[in-house]
Design a protein that fits this description.
The protein is mostly helical and 447 residues long. The chain folds into 2 domains: 180 residues, Clc chloride channel, CATH 1.10.3080.10; 190 residues, Clc chloride channel. It is 72% helix and 0% strand. It is built from 18 helices and no strands.
């Protein structure tokens, strides 16, 4: 075979061209991924703001209804609970409950992320059902549903731009949802680390931070730089912290752990009585709604809705009923057990604020607002077992940077106390049913 310089040069040129095309494809792929992340974050930020405003409107309408018909909730709330559960189980069973377990389950199998768990249909109907629950006085939060719809939006945008769906896409969407819901960018990153990501890689970190930053800029630009629960500038001295933090951590951790254990036990129990109840989900939801209505009437409406206003009132040291925390605990547990769509973030913070307000009676010489914050974080960590996320959320939503050390101390103690009551973390336990086939839609008809 003769040596042919031109043929060799042709081979080299072909190889160089192939390498150039490969680099161009890689560059285009990276560009599409960044565009998808940015566009998705903008959209979900706007959806989160609209959802928050609609949620506030739904709560106001319910309060107006209750003012006009003081005992109307006895009929309306159970009927709406039963209707929401029936509609959810019949048409969109993937939307039941919080929304965060669904994102955790979907991130375990990102190759099938186009599943109903994180579809736009599920996400949007989830928001509608949550608004109906708020319009019925349900003790639900907006954060869990915002996380699920944010993940759905991020998946939809990535699919539209033909970007592969990875666990990072779901994690970034969920984290941006937390950031947009609370206007707390740092909390979104912390939530991704503690709750959504089982293996946190560098490229996922970049994706999460980009999504959170864009979503944060959108909420900041549209809704303004607001402090969610009001500014709390009080602090605790070291001697008070050494006494109050353990008390708040143990009390909050044990009661929050009890809440988690009750939800997990009901979800997974094979007890014949509980199985019989779960075979009649709509009737059971109606009874849960009746419980919420009665508790709300007894407390003059204090336990209805997300609890944002009540929490702000307590954080600003205006005080409240010593029974508020216990009553909100019952209303939130009844709402969560019903299986209706809705989150538990905000109601848990409200229960914790009530717990903290009760502790102010034990420590009357310490700043009330500071004690309330320790109660909030103690109970919240007891429920979700995410200390870092809890510290950042409370610090960012109350501008209480001077309380970081007491908050961290309380959070760590609460995490240990909660583990004694419920070893399994709430969201990860609730994600298990979504890793397996969901109940058939006809199950709702058997109520």
């Amino acid at each position: 075979m003769k040596f042919n310089p031109s043929r060799i040069a042709g081979y080299i040129q072909t190889a160089v061209n192939a390498e150039g095309r490969e680099k161009a494809r890689d560059t285009l792929s990276i560009l599409r991924r960044r565009v998808a992340t940015g566009v998705g974050a903008v959209i979900l930020g706007l959806v989160a703001i609209a959802f928050a405003k609609l949620g506030d409107t739904a709560q106001r309408l319910f309060l107006h209804f209750n003012a006009a018909w003081p005992y109307g909730a006895i009929i309306l709330t159970p009927a709406m609970f039963a209707g929401a559960v029936y509609a959810t189980m019949r048409w969109v069973p993937e939307a039941r409950g919080s929304g965060i377990p669904q994102v955790i389950a979907a991130s375990r199998h990102p190759s099938s992320a186009a599943s109903p768990l994180v579809s736009l249909k599920t996400g949007m109907l989830k928001l509608v059902m949550t608004l109906l629950m708020l319009g019925a006085g349900g003790s639900v939060g907006r954060e869990g549903p915002t996380v699920q719809v944010s993940a759905a939006i991020m998946v939809a945008v990535h699919r539209m731009l033909r970007v592969p769906i990875t666990a990072g896409v779901l994690i970034a969407g969920g984290a941006a949802g937390v950031a947009a819901a609370f206007n707390t960018p740092l909390a979104g990153v912390a939530f991704a680390i503690e709750e959504l990501a089982s293996a946190y890689e560098q490229r996922v970190a970049v994706l999460v931070m980009a999504a959170v930053m864009v979503a944060g800029l959108v909420t900041l630009g549209v809704a303004g730089d607001y402090i969610y629960f009001g500014a709390m500038h009080q602090t605790l001295n070291i001697s008070s912290m050494l006494i109050v933090a353990p008390v708040a951590g143990i009390a909050g951790g044990l009661t929050g752990g009890l809440f988690s254990r009750a939800l997990l036990a009901f979800s997974a129990s094979a007890n014949p009585w509980l199985m019989a109840i779960k075979r009649r989900p709509v009737i059971f939801a109606g009874l849960c709604g009746l419980t919420v209505a009665v508790v709300g009437l007894v407390t003059s409406g204090a336990t209805w809705g997300t609890g944002y206003e009540a929490t702000r009132h307590l954080v600003e040291a205006h005080g409240g009923s010593i029974w508020f925390g216990a009553a909100k605990f019952i209303a939130t547990l009844a709402t969560a057990l019903s299986g209706a769509p809705g989150g538990i973030f905000a109601p848990s913070l409200s229960v914790g604020a009530g717990l903290g307000d009760s502790l102010t009676r034990i420590f009357p010489n310490d700043p009330k607002g500071a004690i309330v914050l320790l109660g909030m974080i103690g109970y919240f960590v007891g429920v979700v077992r995410a200390p870092l996320t809890a510290v950042i959320i409370i610090t960012e939503t109350t501008a209480s940077r001077g309380m970081i050390v007491p908050l961290f101390a309380t959070a760590l103690i609460a995490d240990l106390a909660s583990a004694l009551v419920s070893r399994e973390r709430l969201y990860h336990g609730l994600a298990k049913p979504f890793l397996h086939p969901l109940p058939s839609k006809s199950e709702a008809d058997r109520s």
